[in-house]
Write a structure and sequence with these properties.
Family: Belongs to the octanoyltransferase LipM family.
Function: Catalyzes the transfer of endogenously produced octanoic acid from octanoyl-acyl-carrier-protein onto the lipoyl domain of GcvH, an intermediate carrier during protein lipoylation.
CATH architecture: 2-Layer Sandwich
Distance between the termini: 49 Å
Number of domains: 1
Subunit structure: Monomer.
Number of strands: 12
GO molecular function: ligase activity
Strand order of the largest sheet: 10-11-6-2-1-12
Strand content: 15-25%
Low-confidence stretches: 142-154
Keywords: Acyltransferase, Ligase, Transferase
Mean pLDDT: 90
Length: about 280
């Protein structure tokens, strides 16, 4: 049986505003039926702190530290908590809600899309599996996270290796389209990460930081090998093809599409009105 053909876009390393603008444009084009479903890989030209759509900057983020370090800052169109994007591969999947293989619920759609991520990790030789909260306490923790940091705890169907979260994802549904994007870190700089958030006092900050190491891990901390971004791209491109049962065809944006992304970037994702709105 012939596999469905999806587009594959490798954007390389771009600015924070460009990365979010392109994801939103891909959602819009998918809604307008201008292209098939898309898997996109990208990186960040400058280390970037992204926050979830519902997070409040003044209560959670140490913006003085973000600016002092010369990091970029952007609000995502998706929910979830904050992520420091640095030494990582970021992915996005854009697919219509009415696609025959997409479940109606957010949780089950996570499971289907994340099968591609799971296959990618397994092709790297990692014993990855889905997180499924078993106890009531674990379910309550998902509703009431203890910190602003994305990798603090796994959500339903996120990927875990040796009991620790190894990929963070977020999803939104707009205009009849599912956008799921997420972070696959090669390395995590814990000291830098926790300096970017506000805590009631230093003792709580240090306690949260020490707990983090038992809950999250980066790819290169799990193996004697040192994987590269290129190797991640190869593994996860194959993983998405296998996990979603599709064929990925490389696609390049047209000049018109590039101009649309640039316009949205300037009008929305580079503005304080968007990034600091909560």
């Amino acid at each position: 049986m012939e596999k469905e053909k999806w587009y594959y876009i490798d954007s390389g390393a771009r600015s924070a505003a460009y990365n979010m603008a392109l994801d939103e444009c891909l959602l819009n084009w998918q809604s307008e039926r201008k292209m098939p479903p898309i898997v996109r890989f990208y990186q960040w030209a400058t280390p970037t702190l992204s926050i979830g759509y519902f997070q409040r900057v003044e209560k959670e983020i140490n913006m003085d530290e973000v600016e002092k370090r010369g990091f970029e800052f952007v609000r995502r169109p998706t929910g979830g908590r904050s992520v420091l994007h640095d030494k990582e591969l970021t992915y996005s999947v854009i697919v219509s809600e009415d696609h025959p293989d997409m479940p109606k619920t957010v949780t089950e759609a996570y499971r289907v899309i994340s099968q591609g991520i799971l296959e990618g990790f397994q092709s790297l030789g990692l014993d990855a599996y889905f997180a499924v909260p078993k106890t009531q306490q674990e379910r309550d923790d998902l509703k009431n996270p203890r910190s602003s940091v994305c990798f603090d705890a796994p959500s339903w169907y996120e990927i875990v290796v040796e009991g620790r979260k190894i990929a963070g994802s977020a999803q939104t549904r707009q205009k009849g389209v599912i956008l799921q994007h997420g972070s696959i870190p090669l390395e995590i700089d814990l000291d830098t990460l926790y300096d970017l958030f506000l805590f009631p006092n230093e003792r709580i900050k240090e306690r949260m930081k020490s707990m983090f190491s038992s809950k999250a891990v980066a790819v290169n901390a799990l193996t004697d090998k040192t994987f590269t971004i290129k190797q991640l791209k190869e593994a996860f491109r194959d993983g998405f093809e296998k996990g979603l049962h599709v064929e990925l065809q490389t696609y390049e944006l047209t000049n018109e599409q590039k101009a649309e992304v640039e316009q949205l970037m300037k009008e929305k994702y580079e503005t304080k009105e968007w990034n600091y709105k909560k």
